[in-house]
Amino acid sequence: PNNVGILAMDIYFPPTCVQQEALEAHDGVSKGKYTIGLGQDCMAFCTEVEDVISMSMTVVSSLLEKYNIDPKKIGRLEVGSETVIDKSKSIKTFLMQVFEDSGNTDIEGVDSTNACYGGTAALFNCVNWVESSSWDGRYGLVVYAEGPARPTGGAAAIAMLVGPDAPIAFESKLRGSHMSHAYDFYKPNLASEYPVVDGKLSQTCYLMALDSCYRLFCEKYEKLEGRQFSMSDSDYFVFHSPYNKLVQKSFGRLYFNDFLRNPSFVDETSRQTLAPYASLSGDESYQSRDLEKANQQAAKHTYEEKVQPSTLIPKQVGNMYTASLYAAFISLLHNKHDSLVGKRVVMFSYGSGLTSTMFSFRLQQGQHPFNLSNIVTVLNVSDKLKQRVELTPEKFVENTKIMEHHYGGKDFVTGQDCNYLLPGRFYLTKVDSLYRRFYAKK
Ligand code: ACO
User: Fold this and answer.
1) Taking the model in full, what pTM does it have?
2) How remote is the CA of residue 160 from the centroid of ligand 1, in Å?
3) Alpha-helical runs (H) found in 307-408
4) ipTM
């Protein structure tokens, strides 16, 4: 099969959200800390009737319906999630309920988990399957789903159909990975949904992984194309986005990499701005606040062009963990839909602990229903953002308490307060005395 990649996509995020500006006032932090300091506008969160399973069921059934896909045509279903609901039973098995009516039980794949990287692992599994000798001609389906967790929270689910002749095709030879052992963000307390985080270390790990992946990506490109890769060879760069400020820093860091690799890759003004930092050691360069500022300044106009179009949903929804990178990519489709044919997009996936890969897509128009313009219509990002209900920080905190109380719990029915949910959404109705979870469709 040729041009294996993403044929179709859909995104779902909860209808309830809270403004970051309101949270700043409520939390008593200085004005601008979340909106400018972290670069976030708004945060989506689940109420007690929604979780990763209900959101995944919603997005999978919506994708099958909107692209008119026969459920029997799915041969592999992979889930990437950072939110573990059960230490043994996969989220994938819950999703088999969506396929019950079709009678299709012949669907390979389970869950992939490692912080925010599980989604990328799941996507690679599907792509590799379609490219392998065990492929039976059916589609792969990848699902990302995340529930909420502060401080930089967010919640969403994304479904993507994988197959040949895709409008969003992998450049399979261009992949650079960096994997190592780190304690930057982890969840050792199985009774809690909250992580242990070393915020500063997690930023440094992210940037180190980015440098390493970019170096490998460039090496592979050079081997293949016989010339050096520079940022001008890609139209867009899309990053895993725990919060927007880190994306700004990351792009600045890539710019610095290009400057070090070949000063002629950047303009004269940037060369002057960055020259004082050229001799810093790796460690020094991660610690230097001045360098960070210089990078962001030098890269600013290129950021507007190559990164800004992908920042909408992550800024509006918050950290969607495994879904974050793909929500950023969806923002790019949404913002640039009529000018993407022939364009290259470089993607950077990062999951703490740590695992990371840089890879790239080449975009083409595709054939209905699997064409870029139809994908953008189905995604319908503007309406989905507009339809949300803004709640107060007090309501958000009250809701968080209920969620904490229910976390890992049994023998409860949810409030049945589904007022915020649109018809067709799945929701959690109860968890019985044996911890079995029950869902219904509104
Ligand atoms: N106006 C404007 N900017 C402000 C204001 C203000 N009033 N107050 C603070 N800032 C700026 C700071 O200068 C800082 O900017 P900088 O990053 O350019 O230095 C930024 O806001 C953040 O301020 P901090 O004091 O560093 O905030 P905090 O101590 O809360 O730490 C962090 C932020 C580390 C992101 C924390 O929220 C965290 O641990 N998040 C989870 C971990 C994470 O997401 N890591 C990313 C990779 S791992 C992953 O994806 C899970």
Assistant:
1) 0.96
2) 31
3) 312-317, 324-336, 372-379, 381-386, 393-406
4) 0.94
